[in-house]
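Dig into this one:

. . .
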Amino acid sequence: MYKKLLTLIFIFFLFYVLTGKSYAVDCTSVPISGSYVIPAGGCTFANTVDGVDAGTGSSNSAVLTVPSGRTLTLNANQTIAFGLINIGGNGVIAMSQSGAQLVKQPLWAPNQDGDGYPTSASPALLAQGSQPANHSRRNVLTTLATADCLDTDATKWANQNGYLDADGDTYTTGGASPVCSGASLPTYNSSTSPYRAAVNGDDCNDASATVWRTTYRDADGDLYGTTNTTTCDGTNITTGYVVNSTDCYDSNANAKPGQTTYYNVDRGDGSYDYNCNSVETKRYGLTQQTSTSCVSSEPSASELAGFVSSIPACGVAGTRTQCCGYSTASCGTLYLCNVGCPSGSSVSWQYTNVTNFKQLCL
């Protein structure tokens, strides 16, 4: 077998010397540990020092197989390590004319702390019998694609997302930071490992464990604050501050999220947006009731009061209808006038107009 191997290598060595050609696609899915079979179409190993690796110490038991009709190409100055070579009937190993070699040696990768992660991504390998300093066998590595984040500590090899909690109050500050760790973040320690595995709030003062949450000035006392003025609090909240910042106008206690009351005067800054939804909603549209006759049947709910002829702007006066209820027939004795038709003691009803009525808004 080795005689055949040498003959094939010699023939293709002469071919490449004469033609000066050396090309092939990279071999794919080469295992970190174990044997490899050259795929259909042939290939070349990707790295200057490469090959197959298995076993311990100075021995290599990995098998490199070149099936019949397939070609393994060695490029200039390339070293390919193996334990055994198995060549099929018409399998070919084509070697470049300049420095290419096959060696029956193990492969070594830089791995100073021996944790299975290389010093650098896609590290330069060595093929030799004795173990180089700060190297381990390639076949014991977990990966070749990711570099060890701290190759002097075998307990740390991968960056994990950590959230800083410098003062130890369990509240974190800022976004995620890469923390050199093992399979998970180290146990929290405010001195040596001040990072949490998950975000928890946004500590406004990470140098003091007694304060951690931002509170907001509530100048009008409606329990809603704004971001204009803030402070940093803990369990106790500074007087005049609240934990939310959703107030849209902090100089009027009636202007606040969730407000349901309509007003005919602006809140203080020219706006009628009292519920902080960024929209001024008018209370009344055009009236749906045009008759002013007295009726003995209560008008339906759809016959709503509204402005006559045109809808005024917020706070602007106009003529609006109202429904009056009477405690006697034929609208004789007035009981109550309202936007909606009063029930209760009413036995007759009539729509009337109210002049100089200011539009209500929310």
Remarks:
- Confidence is low (pLDDT under 50) at residues 1-22.
- The CA atoms of residues 100 and 282 lie 86 Å apart.
